Amino acid sequence: MPKSPLISLFHLFPPEMAHHLAVQALRYGLVPPQPRVVSPALETTLAGVPIANPVGLAAGFDKNAETIAALAGQGFGFGECGTVTPLPQPGNPKPRIFRLKDEEAVVNRLGFNNDGLEAFAARLAAPRSFPIGANLGKNKDATDALADYVTGATRCYPLAQYLTVNISSPNTQGLRDLQAAEPFGQLVSAVTQVRRQLMETEGQPHKPIFFKLAPDLEADAIRALCDILVEGGADGAILSNTTITRPVAFDGAGGLSGKPLQPLARAALHTAYAHAGDRLTFISAGGIDSAEEAYARLRAGASAVQLYTALTYQGMGLVTQIKRGLIAFLQQDGFANVREAIGVGA
Question: Which residues are catalytically annotated?
Fold first, then answer.
């Protein structure tokens, strides 16, 4: 796909400045809307949440919920904002985003830099008809990680269409330790308890809760975590976050995203869906850069996909390209709706 003029312009700037400019350009309506591609074939649900299409924006692009009003105009079926932490924090020292243009990849070590929960929630509270998920994290210096996630879930649950608990970023020390069985089970129980309490005391509707997992987990660990999600009443998982492996020539710290992540993200999805596809809903993220790749993830068991790094190389036109391609693939395979394709190739 040819690079858009806007992408060429953004790439004249250092990566973090380019990211800031892209967010502000979208926020203030300087990015032209995409052509409308609307089809009953793409309409589906995400753990019960109706979405116009299964192509979503991954967390990390809009950390502070600044672009919500513009996302629907770019053609996404849903968006995910964050990661947000209870207190504002600056993140890790700069430079902390690195483009690997030849590999169509990015390495970041941002460290959950964000404006904090109250600023995030105020923006999330604005009226909208577009489904938004809130991606929750913990503060770097938190002594009680569980309390940070409970705080975030309590504040964001009434405002978002779903919650994602991010325990898989490699850029906050000790965060991935929460993927060990015991703390993971405690966290699942605590966050789903927030939902129960809000449903009982405030009359809130049931909303999905996802957990975002690392692509570097062994298959047995993925299966074990899926079992804990089911037992704890969570709705699904996002597979996957960035990787700390280095199939590219980059030796620094941080999480790698983009095309080199494809094999790991695919493998994690295959493992999870084969084990728990009848019990959990899966969102696939990591290296999705074409309609072919998106369709392959749906056939492998994802109910929806999320984009981020590929957008930094191809622009928002990729969303339109993927939706048109999905419609063509569904017609080619004789599916009337995208739901029929989920898991058929697993």
Answer: 169
**Closest alpha carbon to 280 in 217, 222, 336:** 222
Gap between the Cα atoms of 72 and 276, Å rounded = 31
Q: Locate the domains of the chain by residue range.
A: 5-341
Question: Amino acid letter at 226?
Answer: C
How far apart are alpha carbons 136 and 83 in whole angstroms? 5
Per residue in 240-282, pLDDT tens? Answer: 999 999 999 999 999 999 999 999 999 999 999 999 999 999 9
Q: What is the pLDDT of residues 303-313, one digit of tens each?
A: 999 999 999 99
- The yes-or-no verdict on residue 346 having pLDDT over 90 is no
HEC profile of 117-183: HHHHHHHHCCCCCCCEEEEECCCCCCCCHHHHHHHHHHHHCCCCCEEEEECCCCCCCCHHHHHCHHH
> Hey, what CATH topology would domain 5-341 get?
TIM Barrel (3.20.20)
